[in-house]
Design goal:
The structure holds two protein chains of two kinds. Chain A is of the alpha+beta class. Helix content of chain A is 34%, strand content 15%. Chain A starts with a strand and ends with a helix. In chain A, 45% of the residues are buried. Helices cover 33% and strands 25% of the residues of chain B. In chain B, the strands form four sheets. In chain B, strands 4-5-10-6-7 form a five-stranded antiparallel sheet. In chain B, strands 11-12-13-14 form a four-stranded antiparallel sheet. In chain B, strands 1-3-2 form a three-stranded parallel sheet, covered by helices on one side. The relative contact order of chain B is 0.11. Classes of the chains: A alpha+beta, B alpha+beta.
Chain lengths: 164, 302
């Protein structure tokens, strides 16, 4: 068995040259090799959504994805979302302001899922927000604040991009 | 948890063409598994239900990910994701219920990765895509170093988790014949959470309307989680052919569908509950597909 494969991963705009075995998931490599622990490890079986990252702009569960298969793709984790230190993305800001963050464990996954969703559907209905977030479990908020946060972020983003 | 959460070790092969994939599979015959989206296989490996020595990753085989119109219908590459299917204008135009079926699988995160070929090749009774495709008379294309063959999808499922594909064959494409005029399909499923959960029972119906006689011209019904494999219920179909579109006709078809099905009891549902679901969902799916087909005929809108 060939154990180590050279793999280059582009994460948050930075290129990492790694040597990893093929049986490691993207989640394991992000957390253990790149120390990007904002991507949370929870159920590890594609049920909870805590490990969600964006792959070429689209939300996926990193616990079900082989790191070797992410080669050549743009990976975005929660660490790469805010453009500069100290600043928040409008989605993060909306989560904070609406009380959508309590223990915070589901938050990185939900924020990234919301980004992927809003990039495609900038003016969603609440029903669409609910359907977009079905793959995420939150044990604290009861979800309503999360739906509200995503809708608030959509309004905020629309306001900014609207012509003056 | 009774299983390890890391993957067992395996060799990883990444072919770029179908031919390369076929050669790799032929060489590693018996100890390699094809790996499509992997959303199911990763779990099976984490649980040590399967521990293949090699994985042949198909994500890099670009030609297997496509949706195209062709003479006689549509072709969908086996590596096409559910996300691509639910958002395909071509599929929506021809068979909108396939888009709806795709959109109700898992979550956006699952649908971005999971593929139609994986859903069929897993041959699990709870998969949602076999039943609607069976009502459309779908054909699967199997390739190996020995050549290519085509097989009706309804002959593809042999037993629980086992398909008719030989150990060296790869499911490359699914062909869907052109839709007859004045026809429509529906797939309805019961699942507890309405997201992220296994289907308890699902029913697909496809109805072709006889415009001149104002009757049901043809009907096809296929069931999920109603036996060891996805299945057509042909007695129920035959009973509908040439019938007027009445509740009585639907009731009779639903009873026949229950008789032909062999649902099992599991922690998810008792056998009696599944039979009740088959009965109710068969009627609903037939009603939905039938009304749509009839409306198309009345409007002269094939």
């Amino acid at each position: 068995m060939k154990h180590l494969s050279p793999v280059s991963l582009k994460v948050n705009g930075e290129l990492y040259e790694l040597s990893i075995p093929p049986w490691r998931t993207l989640l394991e490599v992000l957390r253990e090799d790149l120390s990007l622990t904002g991507t949370k490890r929870s159920c590890q079986e594609g049920q909870c959504g805590a490990c969600t990252v964006l792959l070429d702009g689209r939300a996926i569960y990193s616990c079900l994805f082989l790191a070797v298969e992410a080669e050549g793709k743009e990976i975005l984790t929660i660490e790469g979302l805010a453009r500069s230190a100290g600043a928040l993305d409008p989605i993060q800001k909306a989560f904070v302001e609406t009380g959508a963050v309590q223990c915070g464990f589901c938050t990185p996954g939900l924020v990234l899922a919301a980004k992927s969703f809003l990039d495609e559907n900038p003016a969603p209905s609440e029903e669409e927000v609910r359907r977009a977030t079905v793959g995420h479990l939150c044990r604290c908020t009861g979800y309503f604040q999360i739906f509200e946060a995503v809708l608030a972020a959509a309004r905020e983003r629309a306001g900014k991009s609207a012509p003056a | 948890m009774g299983y390890l959460r890391r993957l067992p070790r395996f060799d990883y092969l990444a072919p770029h063409t179908v031919d390369e994939a076929c050669s790799a599979l032929a060489e590693r015959r018996g100890d390699a598994r094809l790996f499509a989206g992997g959303t199911d296989l990763v779990l099976q490996m984490k649980r040590r239900e399967i521990t293949p020595r090699a994985i042949i990753g198909l994500k890099g085989v670009a030609s297997m990910s496509c949706i195209r119109a062709q003479a006689g219908g549509l072709a969908i590459g086996a590596m096409t994701t559910f996300r691509a299917i639910e958002s395909s204008p071509l599929i929506r135009e021809k068979h909108d219920f396939l888009c709806e079926t795709a959109a109700a699988i898992g979550s956006p995160e699952i649908r971005a990765v999971a593929t139609i070929g994986g859903n069929l090749s897993g041959a699990l009774p709870c998969a949602d895509f076999p039943a609607p495709l069976m009502t459309l008379g779908a054909i699967v294309k199997l390739r190996s170093v020995r050549g290519e063959r085509a097989l009706a999808l309804e002959d593809f499922f042999m037993e629980f988790a086992k398909t008719a594909a030989a150990p060296d064959e790869i499911l490359t494409e699914i062909e869907i014949p052109s839709r007859p005029g004045f026809s429509a399909g529906a797939y309805l499923k019961f699942h507890d959470r309405h997201a992220m959960d296994m289907t308890t029972t699902g029913v697909a119906a496809f109805v072709t309307w006889d415009r001149e006689k104002r009757l049901i011209g043809d009907a096809r019904i296929a069931l999920s989680v109603s036996g060891p494999v996805p299945l057509r219920v042909k007695n129920a179909e035959a009973a509908l052919r040439g019938q007027t579109f009445t509740e009585k006709a639907l009731e009779e078809a639903a009873l026949l569908a229950c008789q032909e099905a062999q649902p099992r009891a599991s922690w998810r549902a008792r056998r009696e509950f599944r039979e009740e679901l088959i009965n109710v969902l068969t009627k609903r799916a037939l009603r939905q597909a039938g009304e749509k087909a009839r409306a198309a005929a009345e409007k002269g809108n094939a």
